[in-house]
């Protein structure tokens, strides 16, 4: 543990102070299936090993944003700045047990008692992060052991990687004993276009029904910038092809964003462009996340 890591100053806010009210009205029961809470650090300190220090973004702010955007539920994903201390995320789940579910980051030595406590609180998955700029490398056998343990609880695995790493990761991911949800469309190179070989290979991976994918986060993937039109063909291709295994989320409070501060209202207004019919929108926002995280059919 270094002094630099424990004393690094917070980065400027990455979330909009006054997001617009979206024109698009989500269907009843809509789920923001990828968002985070940060701190507040006075209650929930950030991990000493973190690669960045965010501005505090509390559960109260998250739930207020959810109502502003017209959503009914949240899936809160443990962020790397909190490491394997899931206390802030679980505190948010326990504050709204009916409307929030969680994705944790855990160590293979975690006790059965702690896993069951997380399950009671509303955790339904663990996240494996393969981005070296965000986390230190973890041996894959550690991930394998975690997956085997959470499979017994009926949880799934959420994975975060970048497209160039897919060829190396694919055999490992196929061998996991759970459903696998891929964050942010596998972070494709948008500049190559949605018909590029790399993205087509990713689409083919999803032919295996164990894989699901999140189709949000255009603000991280865009080359052209706001309003992110260059990302739409990627998300639309996935929604059209695998409508029963797609999810959407704001990624609020947009951790580690450097280029600009996204407007969450604008992100919501892109949904009809990627899910072009009411049926597809309902699957993306209601049916799929409700089945995966609340067990509703």
TrEMBL record:
It comes from the Bacteria. CDD domains: PDC_hydrolase (cd01311). InterPro entries: Amidohydro-rel, Aro_Compnd_Degr_Hydrolases, GLI/LigI, Metal_Hydrolase. Residues 31-293 form the Amidohydrolase-related domain. The keyword Hydrolase applies. GO terms for molecular function: hydrolase activity. Keywords: Hydrolase. Gene3D superfamilies: Metal-dependent hydrolases (3.20.20.140). This is 2-pyrone-4,6-dicarboxylate hydrolase. It comes from Nitratireductor aquibiodomus.
């Amino acid at each position: 543990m270094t002094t630099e890591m424990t004393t690094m100053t917070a980065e400027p806010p990455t979330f909009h102070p006054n997001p617009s009210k979206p024109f698009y009205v989500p269907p009843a029961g809509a789920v923001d299936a990828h968002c985070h809470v940060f701190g507040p650090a006075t209650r929930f300190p950030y991990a000493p090993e973190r690669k960045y220090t965010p501005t505090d973004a509390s559960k109260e702010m998250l739930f207020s944003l959810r109502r502003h955007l017209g959503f009914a539920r949240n899936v809160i994903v443990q962020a790397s700045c909190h490491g394997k201390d899931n206390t802030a995320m679980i505190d948010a789940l326990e504050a709204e047990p009916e409307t929030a579910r969680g994705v944790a980051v855990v160590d293979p030595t975690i006790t059965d008692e702690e896993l069951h406590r997380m399950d009671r609180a509303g955790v339904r998955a663990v996240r494996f992060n393969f981005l070296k700029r965000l986390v230190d490398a973890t041996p894959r056998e550690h991930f394998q052991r975690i997956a085997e343990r959470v499979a017994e609880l009926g949880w799934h695995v959420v994975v975060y990687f970048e497209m160039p790493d897919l060829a190396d990761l694919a055999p490992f991911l196929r061998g996991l004993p759970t459903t696998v949800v891929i964050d942010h469309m596998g972070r494709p190179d948008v500049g190559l276009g949605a018909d590029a070989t790399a993205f087509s290979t990713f689409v083919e991976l999803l032919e295996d029904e164990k894989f699901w994918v999140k189709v949000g986060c255009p603000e991280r993937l865009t080359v052209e910038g706001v309003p992110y039109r260059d990302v739409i063909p990627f998300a639309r291709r996935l929604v059209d092809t695998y409508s029963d295994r797609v999810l959407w989320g704001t990624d609020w409070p947009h951790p580690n964003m450097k280029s600009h501060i996204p407007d969450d209202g604008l992100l919501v207004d892109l949904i009809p462009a990627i899910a072009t019919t009411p049926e597809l929108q309902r699957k993306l926002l209601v049916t799929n996340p409700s089945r995966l995280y609340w067990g509703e059919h």
